[in-house]
Design brief:
Elements: H1 2-5, H2 11-101, H3 105-193, H4 196-376, H5 380-494, H6 496-567, H7 569-580, H8 584-593, H9 595-603
Helix pairs in contact: 2-4, 2-5, 3-4, 3-5, 4-5, 6-9
Keywords: Coiled coil, Cytoplasm, Cytoskeleton
Organism: Sphaeramia orbicularis (orbiculate cardinalfish)
GO cellular component, one term: ciliary transition fiber
Length: 604
């Protein structure tokens, strides 16, 4: 209301104050724009500060994770190193055990001598027992053969005696029968020429004599039956003895054949066992070679493990130093960043307080400007002076604020560049840490591959140990079988002469087969020579065939020239001029087909 009342009287003054009011409005607008610009700068700085804080927390988390991973990797490496040391100790113990178990040539010779001595004693005893049994069987066989011959001769003698006695008794009985017939005839003659009383007496005497003769005949028949029974009994006994002797002889022959077969089988078994023993010696040599190779590999692996341990220790110490150095640098950078962040926060707070003060000052100035505008009509000159002073003061303040803003922007830009540099350093450190981690992972992978190789070699050593145990078991079985072979060796000595004879025959046969093989080789050489000769003849035949073909071609050319001469030069030229107008393909065809055309081309 006051402004409206005093408007018309103060028109002169308002015209003078309009320019100052416009300048004041411009200054207010400029201040507001500057405050908005400062507000946007503050917001951008706040956002950058938040992003930098997030990046710092992320880098700190990544650094902690890398430190934790490095610590875990170091613990894993320590555990792997302890396991490798334990496995190395186990390997060394196993290697010592294998060295103790491996048969050296001296130990093998001693063991062979001991085994041979242990095997020869029971073999000798068994051989002596077998010789005693063979001698006993031989003596029994000789005794049985002697008894058989004696019984056979006795049987023949008894049979001859029995035949002789039978012949004598037959002759005697025939003589007695003839005498009795003569007596009968005499008695008949006497009976015819004598009286009955005498005949009766004679008949009675003859009857008595006949009874005596019958009794005697019965006694003789009983004696003959007894002799026949004795003969049959002696024949049965002789047959039984002969059967027993034949059975004993067949048994002894079967025993001899079985002994021969056993000797042959033992000889074959001895040869097989000798070959197996030779193979076992070769395998033992191969195993000793492989064992020495494995020892060399184990020693090389030990050297590699020691070098890896040393390099790992050096790398671990270097990584520890680098970790400690990087940790100190990161902590220092963190402290500096924290200090910068604190400084920036304090600067932001100061800027906020300054902005609040500026806002309050601007509000107060606006109010004061309104009051001054309202009171300008009364205190126009004083206000203009004060406004000029305030303007100068505000300009100075604005210049100071602008300078402060420029300095703040420069410091913010420097801090931003410093932060970017530190972030770049942190990224480079992270990349180096990642590279170191990748190197450590590669080393771990290499060590895992070496561990796998070591495990494979350990498995090979275990296989070799198992093969050595199997060979020791086979050696035990071979020693057990060698005992039997040594037992059979003594029995085989008896048949050595025959084997030598067989060897002579085999040698003769082998010489014959060698001679046949030489003849076969000569025949093969002759065949090869004949094949070469055949190839040469084939080559000569092909060359001669080519010569004949060339001669035939030459003859055809000569015939073609003769035909050309017969045709005449003019007609032939006209003919071939017409032919020359054809294509190249037709000329080639004529070259191939018509020798006359070919000769014309050659002549032309």
């Amino acid at each position: 209301v006051y402004y409206c009342v005093n408007l018309f009287p103060m028109l002169g003054l308002s015209a003078g104050l309009g320019g100052a009011e416009m300048e004041l409005q411009k200054m207010l607008i400029d201040e507001r724009m500057k405050s908005e610009h400062h507000r946007t700068n503050y917001r951008t700085l706040k956002a950058e500060l938040a992003s930098l804080q997030d990046e710092l927390t992320r880098t700190q988390g990544e650094l902690k994770r890398l430190q934790f991973d490095r610590q875990a990797q170091q613990e894993k490496l320590q555990m792997m190193l302890a396991e490798l040391r334990g496995e190395l100790l186990d390997k060394t113990r196993e290697l010592e055990d294998l060295r103790l178990q491996v048969m050296t040539p001296q130990r093998l010779e001693l063991l062979r001598a001991q085994v041979q001595q242990e095997m020869e004693a029971p073999v000798r005893e068994r051989f002596n027992k077998l010789e005693e049994e063979a001698e006993k069987y031989r003596s029994e066989y000789n005794k049985l053969r002697y008894e058989f011959t004696f019984l056979k001769s006795q049987f023949d003698h008894q049979r001859e005696e029995h035949a002789h006695t039978l012949e004598e008794r037959r002759i005697r009985y025939e003589a007695e029968i003839s005498r009795l017939e003569k007596d009968k005839e005499d008695i008949v003659a006497q009976y015819q020429g004598s009286d009955p009383l005498c005949d009766e007496k004679r008949v009675e005497a003859l009857l008595r004599e006949k009874a005596q003769l019958h009794l005697r005949l019965k006694g003789l028949e009983a004696e003959v039956a007894e002799l026949r029974a004795q003969k049959e009994n002696s024949g049965q006994q002789a047959e039984n003895v002969q059967r027993i002797q034949i059975r004993q002889l067949s048994e002894s022959q079967a025993a001899v054949k079985s002994l021969e077969a056993e000797r042959q089988s033992l000889r074959l078994q001895l040869e097989r066992m000798e070959s197996e023993l030779h193979l076992s010696h070769e395998q033992n040599g191969q195993l000793t070679g492989r064992l020495h190779k494995a020892e060399r590999q184990v020693s090389s692996l030990n050297c590699q493990i020691e070098s890896l341990k040393h390099s790992h220790k050096l790398e671990l110490a270097s990584t520890k130093l680098e970790c400690a150095r990087s940790k100190g640098e990161v902590e220092r950078e963190r402290d500096t960043l924290q200090g910068h962040i604190d400084g920036l926060q304090t600067d932001v707070e100061v800027l906020k307080a300054a902005m609040e003060r500026h806002k309050e000052v601007l509000v107060e100035k606006e109010r004061e400007a309104v009051r001054r505008v309202q009171a300008a009509r009364e205190e126009e000159f004083r206000k203009t002076a004060t406004l000029h002073e305030d303007k100068l003061e505000l300009e100075n303040r604005v210049a100071a604020l602008e300078q402060q803003r420029v300095l703040q922007e420069a410091t913010d830009q420097a801090q931003k560049e410093e932060w970017e540099e530190r972030i770049r350093y942190a990224q480079q450190g992270e990349e180096s840490a990642r590279r170191e981690l990748q190197n450590l992972r590669n080393k771990l992978q290499h060590q895992s591959l070496q561990l796998e190789e070591f495990e494979r070699q350990k498995a090979e050593v275990a296989d070799l140990k198992q093969q050595n145990q199997e060979l020791s078991v086979q050696l035990g079985t071979l020693s057990h079988s060698e005992n039997g072979l040594m037992e059979a060796n003594q029995r085989l000595r008896d048949t050595l002469d025959r084997v030598r004879e067989e060897l002579k025959t085999v040698r003769s046969q082998s010489e014959k087969s060698q001679h046949e093989a030489e003849r076969y080789l000569e025949w093969l050489e002759e065949k090869h020579k004949l094949q070469e000769r055949d190839a040469e003849l084939q080559l000569k035949y092909s060359q001669a065939k080519e010569r004949l073909q060339r001669a035939a071609m030459a003859q055809k050319k000569v015939e073609a020239t003769l035909q050309c001469q017969q045709f005449g030069e003019f007609g032939l030229r006209n003919f071939f001029i017409k032919c020359s107008q054809r294509t190249c393909s037709s000329q080639i065809y004529l070259d191939k087909v018509n020798p006359v055309w070919l000769m014309y081309r050659i002549i032309s």
